[in-house]
């Protein structure tokens, strides 16, 4: 649910809420995507409207119902499945206030009161977790991916998850992705757009152990019908990653190994792509040693 919500659901809507996708492609090539017969569904930008417009109300419905996915309970346990700031009053005997800047800030604080059990999901992507109870390090029982806390009175629970960007690799049974990787940080999938990488991403190769740098950036949106009009800027966070750019003499095929020059590639959260006009985009990139 977390993977779907922060990536595919949010990517279905332009940042200003005026355009929508029915599909979420993992690669876009202008002139082919949305044009060639077998890629007509693979649109390079969000359409303004549809004859049957299911997207706008569906996005609103899912976002509005986020709290129902975030929490659950049984007779004696309150479960925290997803992380979002707010207050929860349960029927099982616990009440809590959650403070977090998730998914950019990967820390969560709960102020819990009452009597019962609190079960907090530990994300599978987080390899290093720091858990505190009332300001002191604490090792809770971990069961089926959830950390359990016995509450009797009032407690403050702090969880800090791994905030380092990381690569995801596909099973070799997915042949299209053999030798490639996807960049993530926390629950967010990142993608590479031509707008941030000298106009082209089809020549990018990721460095296996390349360093990454996390930075604040703004994405400007302009009206397609009035490109010279006012531009709105939306804040997000990019990842700069060590990579390489392949160079060739232009022949379709060659017996000479391609020259790869060091390059610092920039990736943005996948939900932010397609907001700056039609350009190349890729989620999965080849990895060099």
Name its key features.
single chain; 289 residues; mainly beta; Immunoglobulin-like; 2 domains; 43% strand; globular
Describe this structure in words.
- The strands form 2 sheets. Strands 2, 3, 4, 5, 6, 7, 8, 9 and 10 form a 9-stranded mixed beta sheet that branches. Strands 12-13-17-16-14-19 form a 6-stranded mixed beta barrel.
- The chain is built from 3 helices and 19 strands.
- It starts with a helix and ends with a strand.
- By secondary structure, it is mainly beta.
- A hairpin with a 2-residue loop joins strand 7 (130-133) and strand 8 (136-137).
- It has 2 domains: 2-61 and 164-288, no CATH class; 70-160, Immunoglobulin-like.
- The mean pLDDT is 93.
- The longest helix is centred in the N-terminal third of the chain and has 10 residues, at 2-11.
